[in-house]
């Protein structure tokens, strides 16, 4: 009986392996034939567009320096994207992991349409894992002669849960690698990189949970670096033109215009459109009068697109670059990582920094604030070892106050990915300290050395780790304690604060499973 069962298991496995290999071969042939023509960033001009005229005098005066503006306010982050799209006269190159076709996502879709109507070339590159369900909107946008949409590492199955599920299963190892990059480049003059995707929860428009996130807008040489990264992804083997996968009907674009116009005319849109018009900070950036942090030591860095195809790591990939910067710490290292799964190797690394006398502080999400419960299950076992080594741990509260909540958000979740070294160097980007960012997803961000920019990031870290927003963790007789120093009177928790029994149990169960490499 056992022999027969093993025989059938062997047959099933053999059929699955054969089907998987056939699927990979068929997709490879399809992708090779579907690839679009190569395209590259357009050359900037001294004064051809409004952004040229605003930015060119600044960069000409400091040809070897990058100007940085840190965007921690959700509405300003929306406004700078919308305003730069309105000011663009030549090109918009946009690369995102998630772009929801929701309220704010469609407001920005409208800015892209208006820009394309003016003759601006729009290139939109999206990771395919979250693009399903947006095919109608994306296909309608792609039907505009001035807009081209490409999907990174897409499935060929576009309709039906079963068909897509089968393809995901057969191509699991290739589809498990995703493009997590976030870039917004306008006219080759302004680039925005950081942690934000496009959607309501990133711009303080969600009714339940909004993300606390951070981007950096840059001008100068770093923009060229962002363009080179975008072009590498746009022209990679993994970027497939949407028209090779799905096509819009003749009425799709007019129908999308009507829908988006109605959304923009709604009462809900008023605060966002007003911020685009009236934000002094955004207007100053678009008109060349913003207070910038200038530095000759700033680089937009990224994993290569080949990482998503399983290429062997190189010294210029994100993990070795960020480790080299962090290992330069002499006094202190401050880390913000919403999804934090250090693993045994990570604990050893932090232990080595503590033995060198470096003060290490880490902010991540509490279980109740974490939007990915499985990640918390992977993180939880490492808290006690880290605290034993003198690492300071903070966890964001589930109901931390968002600075400007327009629609009654009852909660906030951390989404900023950043770190600071000795109060002078830092990073803002898409990279989490977890196995997925290190080994599976492609990532990018801004590395810089600049005391003024670092001081602003330090202030953000101090605010987010303050008692109003975060729990302070410590050990008491070897057991975890969470301190809520803002409570009156101050409160100490002996279990995961504000988390239900079911949530605590589910997170713990994940910690028992051999899935850490996927988190």
Q: What's the helix and strand layout?
A:
Elements: H1 2-34, H2 50-61, E1 66-71, H3 74-87, E2 91-96, H4 103-117, E3 121-127, H5 135-142, E4 147-152, H6 161-170, H7 172-175, E5 183-186, E6 190-194, E7 209-212, E8 215-219, H8 221-234, E9 239-241, H9 252-264, H10 270-278, H11 280-286, E10 293-295, E11 298-302, H12 318-326, E12 332-336, H13 343-355, E13 359-365, H14 373-379, H15 383-388, E14 392-396, E15 411-414, E16 418-421, E17 425-429, H16 435-440, E18 444-449, H17 451-464, E19 470-476, E20 479-484, E21 491-493, H18 501-512
Parallel strand pairs: 2-3, 3-4, 7-15, 12-13, 13-14
Antiparallel strand pairs: 1-8, 1-10, 2-5, 4-9, 5-6, 6-8, 11-18, 12-16, 14-19, 16-17, 17-18, 19-20, 20-21
């Amino acid at each position: 009986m056992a022999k027969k069962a093993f025989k059938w298991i062997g047959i099933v496995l053999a059929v699955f392996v054969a089907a998987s290999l056939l699927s990979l071969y068929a997709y490879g042939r399809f992708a090779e034939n579907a690839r679009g023509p190569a395209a590259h960033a357009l050359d900037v001009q001294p004064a051809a567009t409004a952004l040229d005229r605003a930015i060119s005098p600044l960069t000409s005066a400091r040809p070897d320096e990058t100007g940085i503006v840190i965007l921690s306010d959700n509405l300003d982050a929306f406004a700078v994207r919308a305003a730069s799209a309105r000011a663009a006269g030549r090109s918009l190159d946009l690369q995102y992991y998630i772009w929801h076709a929701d309220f704010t996502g469609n407001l920005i879709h409208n800015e892209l349409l208006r820009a394309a109507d003016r003759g601006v070339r729009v290139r939109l590159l999206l990771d395919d894992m979250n693009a399903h369900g947006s095919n109608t909107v994306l296909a309608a946008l792609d039907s505009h002669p001035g807009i081209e949409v490409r999907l990174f590492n897409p499935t060929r199955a576009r309709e039906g849960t079963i068909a897509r599920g089968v393809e995901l299963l057969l191509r699991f190892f290739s589809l498990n690698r995703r493009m997590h990059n976030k870039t917004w480049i306008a006219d080759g003059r302004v680039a925005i990189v950081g942690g934000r995707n496009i959607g309501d929860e990133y711009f303080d428009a969600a009714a339940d949970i909004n993300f606390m996130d951070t981007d950096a807008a840059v001008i100068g040489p770093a923009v060229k670096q962002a363009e080179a990264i975008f072009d590498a992804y746009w022209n990679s083997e993994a970027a497939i033109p949407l028209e090779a996968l799905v096509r819009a009907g003749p009425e799709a674009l007019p129908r999308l215009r009507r829908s988006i116009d109605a959304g923009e005319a709604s009462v809900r849109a008023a605060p966002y459109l007003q911020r685009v018009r009236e934000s002094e900070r955004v207007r100053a950036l678009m008109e060349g009068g913003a207070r910038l942090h200038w530095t000759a030591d700033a680089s937009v860095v990224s994993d290569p697109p080949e990482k998503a195809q399983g290429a062997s790591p190189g010294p210029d990939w994100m993990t070795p670059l960020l480790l080299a910067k962090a290992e330069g710490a002499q006094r202190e290292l401050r880390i913000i990582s919403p999804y934090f799964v250090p693993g045994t190797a990570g604990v050893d690394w932090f232990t080595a920094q503590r033995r060198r006398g470096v003060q290490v502080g880490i902010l991540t999400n509490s279980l109740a604030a974490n939007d990915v419960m499985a990640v918390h299950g992977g993180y939880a076992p490492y808290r006690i070892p880290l605290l034993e080594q003198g690492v300071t741990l903070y966890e964001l509260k589930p109901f931390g106050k968002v600075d400007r909540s327009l629609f009654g958000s009852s909660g906030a979740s951390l989404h900023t990915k950043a770190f600071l070294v000795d109060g002078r160097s830092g990073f803002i980007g898409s990279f989490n300290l977890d196995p997925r960012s290190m080994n599976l997803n492609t990532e990018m961000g801004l590395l810089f050395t600049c005391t003024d920019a670092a001081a602003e990031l330090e202030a953000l870290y101090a605010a987010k780790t303050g008692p109003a927003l975060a729990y302070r963790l410590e050990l008491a007789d070897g057991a975890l304690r969470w301190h809520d120093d803002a409570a009156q009177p101050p409160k100490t928790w002996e279990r995961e604060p504000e988390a239900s029994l079911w949530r605590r149990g589910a997170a713990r169960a994940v910690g028992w499973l051999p899935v850490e490499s996927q988190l």
